[in-house]
User: Fold these one by one.
Assistant:
Number 1:
Amino acid sequence: QVQLQQSGPGLVKPSQTLSLTCAISGDSVSSKSAAWNWIRQSPSRGLEWLGRTYYRSKWSNDYAVSVKSRITINPDTSKNQFSLQLNSVTPEDTAVYFCARTGAGKGWFDPWGQGTLVTVSS
Amino acid sequence: DIQMTQSPSTLSASVGDRVTITCRASQSISSWLAWYQEKPGKAPKLLIYEASSLESGVPSRFSGSGSGTEFTLTISSLQPDDFATYYCQQYSSYWTFGQGTKVEIK
């Protein structure tokens, strides 16, 4: 049974970098049959997919156009986890952030991490 | 981007009612659609994938139908545990979600 456990700060100052980590149990970040995603949820934007990382014969990433210039998602094979970095944050980036798994060739998200409320405020 | 529009935004119903939620896609997504249930303070929970396939462990009172641009989630007999917000999500081209339908107690 795959489980995802998120960690990271709940408060970030404007213009700084939001950083979150998602630890995986029951699967491998290097699995060729999975992809590892970040999604956020806010009252103004609803549920918004941000990006993913996955390994087939090499590591690849896909990012949403809305955050493409500011986002990095990296795998950490030594700790079996993956991370989200979002640069130059503004109050608009205040949201609950989730990590989630998709299967290879499958587009639904399951399971999800528990969610982290990140507030951007000075 | 493919836009997903759910209706209604809020639905008031009683235990035992049959409930139907509609999700429309801005272009055809074949059957590449999932449904989720979300409760306050919790992550969304997968109910249905590929428009009509019931996720393991999900009660059979939940069902999904549709293809192309119009989809429905039906709860055949609403139970107390079903009062929640429901989201559709397309995965035909990247991933986008509907705005949600809140099912509340009448």
Note: Chain B touches chain A through 24 residues (CB under 8 Å).
Number 2:
Amino acid sequence: QSVLTQSPSVSAAPGQKVTISCSGSSSNIGKNYVSWYQQLPGTAPKFLIYEDKKRPSGIPDRFSGSRSGTSATLDITGLQTGDEAHYYCGVWDSSLNVVVFGGGTKLTVL
Amino acid sequence: QVQLVESGGGVVQPGRSLRLSCAASGFTFISYPMHWVRQTPGRGLEWVALISYDGRNTYYADSVKGRFTISRDDSKSTLYLQMNSLRPEDTALYYCARGGSWFGEFHHWGQGILVTVSS
């Protein structure tokens, strides 16, 4: 049971937009920056979004993030088959003094 | 470019110990916090431990607290995870990750090393 809640799966057609949500609490998302990670099958996670909405160099602007209250979202526009992956949110929990992850959302591009 | 290479994994019996290493290169090791994160095959990510950039502060997941110890040797640009009293539920792929400005960030990841705890 993850501290952060993500929908297990989401799907959309190529070219469409998808939103992946991450729900937490006042001690984690409500207080600290959220980051997002993409994990392609059989590979290590990849840093995708940090400080809620910033992209590391090399990450296309099709990926965007936001945070409001105790929830965060990752938007992916112009979906490509290569975007099929698991997506995880992560954040520091100031009450538990641990990093917490969401359970991950599997994106299928139909 | 940033490289993180884990080593030291393998098969170990319950109750025994194992030490993982992570050799870092391509960045100024002493400037960054470092983490261990694990993943059970087919499951999600579980954060394990964090050590601050200066080594003064460490944090652990409740599931490993008191059994695992994270440390760093800045002279060797190497991160360690000493795992004692291993349990079958510690079986996972262990990733070394470089942190960022905030504790919840993982900017770079190693390829992972498999630890199997089984009799």
Note: The interface with chain B takes residues 2, 32-35, 37, 39, 44-47, 50-51, 56, 86, 88, 90-92, 97-104 of chain A (CB under 8 Å).
